[in-house]
Amino acid sequence: MKRVVVAPGDGIGPEVIPPALDVLKFFHPDWEYTPVYLGYECWKRTGDALSDKTLETLRKADLILFGAITTPPDPKYHSVVLRIRKELDLYANLRPVFGEGFDILIVRENTEGLYSGIEWKEKDRACTLRVVSEAGSRRIAKFASACANRRRRHLTIGNKANVMKSDAYFLEICMEEAEKTGISIDKKYIDALVLDVLQHPSRYDVIVTTNIFGDILSDAAAFLEGGLGMLPSANIGRHQALFEPVHGSAPDITGKGIANPIAAIRCVSLLLKYVGERPLAIEVERAIQKTIAAGIKTPDLGGTATTDEVGREILKNLALSQQKEPVDL
């Protein structure tokens, strides 16, 4: 039995996580599910966005299903997401992007770079330290190379080595690790890479890059699937994994019932792959595609369906594929 911590968070997180949780419970009603409350709304109520008790609950989890977090421009507020990634050492961020004729896996270093969290203000400037360490670069390079080796055996290294010595260092380490694996290697400057991924996505298999570059690249690549409401992510560490939709808290549509739950439901697909249940993950993807093909889509995809309607249709399609009744959750 797996211990799953469910953290809906802020904004549309509490709207899209319930349909995703319904899908996970459809396959695993016997797992242990523990809700936790964290984020900006929690901070406004209690003065603490991530309590020590909540963090300890996260540490004890096997799997974490995470919604979204609002990070206000308040110097007293510290990023919950960055703290969780560091405290749990969730060093690899995986963002799959796939569609007709392309299947890309973006592997993003998740604990350092410009999201190192080492920041300070001086009299006339604000500074952020970009950290690119050998240990951090080598382990993400090994992870990405292993992913490529299991797929189509090609790795692209996104970088800006022509401008930054830290990126030249990252590139050098990634090249070393990829060469050990025997896969084919390509290296591209990140600005040109973002454009080429959008123009020629079929050229790419696994892409590895540093923290902020991976964030920007994967958000841009969401265009290929219809927007941020479609993309899941997995944050992988040595002992745990956190699954989180890419779209953020989306305060402009919070409470309207129109948030796209597909990214959150695809997080469940990634979770199932992570625990070795690939056939079930494929069933989830098929149910999603069947729902979209039937025209049951939220407004961001050109439809008129609500969050709940899309979630219920996906669950119904899963039930039909499994020849079982949906669980009343």
Automatic annotation (TrEMBL):
Provide this UniProt record's keywords sorted from A to Z: Oxidoreductase
Its GO biological process annotations read: isocitrate metabolic process; tricarboxylic acid cycle
For this chain, one GO molecular function annotation is: magnesium ion binding
Check the record and name the Pfam families matching this protein: Iso_dh
Annotated Isopropylmalate dehydrogenase-like domain ranges read 3-314
**Stored InterPro entries:** IsoCit/isopropylmalate_DH_CS (IPR019818), IsoPropMal-DH-like_dom (IPR024084)
Which SMART domains did the record assign? Iso_dh
Report the family membership: Belongs to the isocitrate and isopropylmalate dehydrogenases family.
Name of the protein described by the UniProt record: NAD-dependent isocitrate dehydrogenase
Organism in which the protein naturally occurs: Methanospirillum stamsii
